[in-house]
DNA sequence: TACATTTACATAACTAGTTATATAATTAAT
DNA sequence: ATTAATTATATAACTAGTTATGTAAATGTA
């Protein structure tokens, strides 16, 4: 299958599906070989039933990793085939009490040999191969239970995309973006306040000329994120990190983190000892980001913003 | 999943199916992550189409290892989704000439990144694991193409069962079996002849007392196969191997081979230099067995049996 | 004790594939 | 130039699973 090599690892699913189909096809021929009238899909259910006498349909489903309706259907097929039967029992009437018929017991005897033969045959394949498929499946089941493929891919996506993000200093051409990106989220969650208009309409006067800084994140040369570092003259803090905004279109590219890191680096270069910020706890991803950047909660400072209900600081080491 | 460990390698199929389901589930979420409206099952078809512009449905099916109807269905779904379209072309009217729409081209651009991210994510899993699932699948595809699982299991079955077969010397209690097993196949394919009745009704007089031997194969202590070594006084051969019969119920346990090997060993012990046999070419499995035992075709000896149309000999080294 | 919740199972409708078979277009053979 | 065989695709019916949902029995709780 040329295809697999061309597509690369992303074809893992397809490759697995084909291998599964090949094995399942042979499985039904193997039952024929042993002269038992048996459908491969019955096997996990039948086997579990033969091993553990008292077991409910739901428990079987859990044990073999199928859904309950699947086991339910198979069970009725097994009954129709005369391999198992329901027995009357006075206890819990929701459960169906199922045991093997003599015919079922006979088949389970044949299976003992059959399973042994398959085991040896597969064991031999494992010996003949450099890469142990059985062990690999076991290992990958574990790896995927630790962290799903989705999560792994998503992390990789973020990593790759953040490489394409460029953090650059504010230039007059980004004035509009600086305002729009901020208005976008502020007016979505709260209401624009007097202090917002001042800073967003005149970043030069209110931020830059007072010794502050503004950074812009570019993606494909488009400004998609902004963040300001504002000088706080009459406070115990040197700077306030504020007006951080990332376009919803560019979310999931780690842009907030990259902007924050760069702002803190700038603060350090400018000799800051402590950086302050204000936010609101309904902005959960933002708060998480601040923690990730190293900010910690502080209490009781005055603020001009109504929307502020949490204040944080970071001490630069 | 306790189940897999209890059942052993025979659960390979089930284990593969679950892994496939887990990967496929995540696959559809991954498409969501990249913001493309795309169903995972479309992928192999769409990808092949994006790579090779001029390709028929049947060729795609072959390339990706699906059935033609499966590709046919997916193709119509892709058309309905506006990702590909049929174009008019004057050549072969059975083929449908399909190309990507602009929307399809856009999605195939997104896929370039997506595939790369998945590749890296899976590559990382491979690095984290001791057993390389991707390499194992590739290797097992090859191993199974060389010899199917069915064939491997069938060989193992034969091997195991032949261990339970006991080859023993003729005793009077096997007289009936000696006759019945032979009558069974002779009358099925040919007609019983005078010479048959003589040997089968009086093995003591016609075989044993003349310096011959009869061996019996027992399975579960039941006689299921017989074979005679008859002294040939007035011939260039020392012995004839004859009256070999195996019960149809006990076929596939290598019994013919075991009987033949043991008969030849006996012949050698008795000082034979050449062993002779007669048969008929319609009995293909038997002829194959004789070749396997080392017999070779010879011509032009006289025979009392009408059914004989092939004569063979083996020179004992 | 009555009512809400949970449990055990069944049923229906869907999914992603399959095989078997039909049909139209093309190619090969007489 | 027919006719037969082959090729390319479509369609129908099936398979082995799934999710969503319904129902009766058992359990928990005010």
Automatic annotation (TrEMBL), chains A, B:
Pfam families reported for this sequence: Acetyltransf_1, MarR_2
Residue intervals of the N-acetyltransferase domain: 176-317
Keyword Ligase: no
InterPro entries: Acetyltransferase_Enz, Acyl_CoA_acyltransferase, ArsR-like_HTH, GNAT_dom, HTH_MarR-typ, Tscrpt_reg_MarR-type_CS, WH-like_DNA-bd_sf, WH_DNA-bd_sf
Keywords annotated in UniProt: DNA-binding, Transcription, Transcription regulation
Residue stretches making up the HTH marR-type domain: 9-155
SMART domains noted in UniProt: HTH_MARR
UniProt-recorded name of the protein: GNAT family N-acetyltransferase
Record organism: Flavobacterium hungaricum
């Amino acid at each position: 299958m040329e295809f697999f090599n061309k597509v690369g690892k992303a074809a893992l699913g397809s490759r697995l599906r084909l291998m599964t189909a090949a094995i399942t096809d042979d499985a039904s021929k193997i039952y024929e070989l042993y002269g038992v009238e048996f459908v491969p899909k019955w096997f996990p259910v039948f086997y579990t039933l033969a091993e553990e006498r008292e077991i409910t349909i739901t428990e079987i489903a859990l044990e073999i990793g199928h859904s309950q309706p699947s086991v339910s259907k198979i069970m009725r097929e097994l009954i129709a085939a005369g391999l198992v039967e329901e027995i009357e029992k006075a206890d819990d009437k929701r459960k169906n009490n199922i045991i093997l018929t003599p015919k079922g017991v006979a088949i389970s005897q044949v299976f003992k040999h059959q399973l042994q033969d398959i085991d040896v045959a597969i064991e031999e394949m494992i010996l003949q191969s450099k890469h142990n498929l059985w062990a690999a499946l076991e290992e990958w089941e574990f790896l995927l239970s630790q962290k799903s493929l989705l999560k792994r891919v998503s992390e990789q996506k973020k990593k790759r995309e953040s490489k394409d993000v460029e953090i650059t200093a504010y230039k007059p051409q980004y004035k509009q973006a600086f305002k729009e990106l901020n208005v976008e989220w502020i007016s979505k969650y709260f209401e624009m306040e007097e202090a917002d208009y001042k800073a967003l309409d005149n970043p030069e006067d209110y931020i830059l000329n007072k010794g502050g800084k503004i950074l812009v994140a570019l993606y494909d040369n488009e400004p998609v994120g902004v963040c300001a570092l504002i000088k706080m003259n009459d406070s115990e803090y040197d700077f306030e990190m504020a007006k951080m905004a990332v376009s919803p279109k560019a979310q999931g590219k780690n842009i907030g983190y990259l902007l924050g890191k760069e702002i803190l680096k700038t603060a350090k270069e400018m000799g800051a000892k402590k950086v302050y910020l204000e936010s609101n706890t309904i902005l959960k991803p933002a708060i998480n980001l601040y923690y990730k950047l190293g900010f910690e909660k502080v209490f009781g400072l005055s603020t001009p913003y109504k929307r502020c209900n949490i204040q944080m600081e970071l001490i630069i080491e």
